[in-house]
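Hi V.,

You were right to ask for the full record rather than a summary. Here it is.
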Amino acid sequence: MRKALLAARRTLPEATRTQWDAAIAQRLLDWCAQENVGELGVYWPLHGEPDLHGAYAQLAARGVQLSLPVVLEKHAPLAFSTWTPGEAMVKDGMGVAVPAQLRLCPAPATLLVPCLGFNEQRFRLGYGGGYYDRTLEHAPRPRTLGVAYGCLKASFASGTYDIALDHIVTEGDLL
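Predicted structure:
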């Protein structure tokens, strides 16, 4: 299923992806304002994930403290580094962009979670590493907002260690 969802996301036309990213970004901005979000863990887009950098810059301008996830070791929860849009970035050992100057901080109170796929019960399908699930199983659990394209909604059973997200935002909905 992961391969099929990844292929479906990669075949989206660039114009469609740009339009959908803008819609998701606006829903994110509206939700953060409505929920009075003061700190937010964001993600650097991989493999065609929605690119929300424009929204990140607007959130930072509003005074929202942003952080990016950092993998410090395999089979462990994510760590987080304070991040400001536009700062120097480097690729980590897994090829993910992280701040060149890591400034580790506590897990944010609210966390964006990119989804390769998602189901009606707000469980996400990721790339199979389990990093987000391991992060969410520890208290205090951050409030979560999954991010995905609506066409990636799928039917799948959740696993024992899977944790449902609080909300999922797509270009057309906030679930």
